[in-house]
Prior knowledge:
Blueprint: E1 4-9, H1 16-32, E2 39-44, H2 50-57, E3 62-66, H3 83-88, E4 93-96, H4 99-105, H5 109-121, E5 125-130, H6 134-138, H7 142-154, H8 159-162, E6 166-169, H9 183-201, H10 203-208, E7 211-214, H11 219-226, E8 233-236, H12 243-250
Parallel strand pairs: 1-2, 1-8, 2-3, 3-4, 4-5, 5-6, 6-7, 7-8
The site of phosphoenolpyruvate has 13 residues, from strand 8.
Amino acid sequence: MRKNIVAGNWKMNKTFDEADELVTNLIEQLEEKDLGENTDVIICPPFPYLEMCTDYSNESYFAVGAQNVSDRDQGAFTGEVSADMLASMEVEYCIVGHSERRAYYGETDALIAKKVDQLLKNDIRPIVCCGEVLEEREAGKQFEVVKRQITDGLFHLDAEAFGKIIIAYEPVWAIGTGKTATPEQAQEIHAFIRGLIAEKYGKEVADNTSILYGGSCKPSNAKELFANPDVDGGLIGGASLKAEDFINIALAF
Ligand code: PEP
């Protein structure tokens, strides 16, 4: 059965020393608090801190993910980081298709599909983000938008490959704004996403896929969001920068 997952997206935050302190605090929290066996914790620091985090992760209870990956194998692509490099540093997960990458760096569903392929080829599990912007929600287009993102970004995969995917539904209007989707809004679209997966790959694959919610999730609202049957955890931005808040979110199942 699918796992509950809480993944922290640190985005472009923290100096090296601050990142080190955050990981140390996280380890302290994880040693004090019992998350239970069905909850996985993933941290997604900026690229330069991955190795420090994977070194720590050997001794503790979290896995490490990157925030982005190149769609190419290797070679003359200045500034890019390949999936092969990530795999060689024991990175197990990678966020793909975050709305900030779509909005500021022009990432399309076609590019996201290529990044997903690179990750799977290197045994890294993609955390694939989808979600509508405010105007799309106001026009009632959220289902159409999410369906397109999932179909064009992921449905070229066969069922076995799809089994490695984690989905994060992140309404763009809720990211970093303090506005959270209501538990009903989250459940409605998570159930819709699971239905799309079931239609394409069958009920077993759909039931085994973790679908995370992201968008101003914090200790005070995590419980009501995670109580929904199709919400399997969260992709956490701002609140992942404080160890206690992040772990209190992970305790909300
Ligand atoms: C995110 O960007 O993935 C996110 C969920 O951010 P925040 O929690 O800060 O809204």
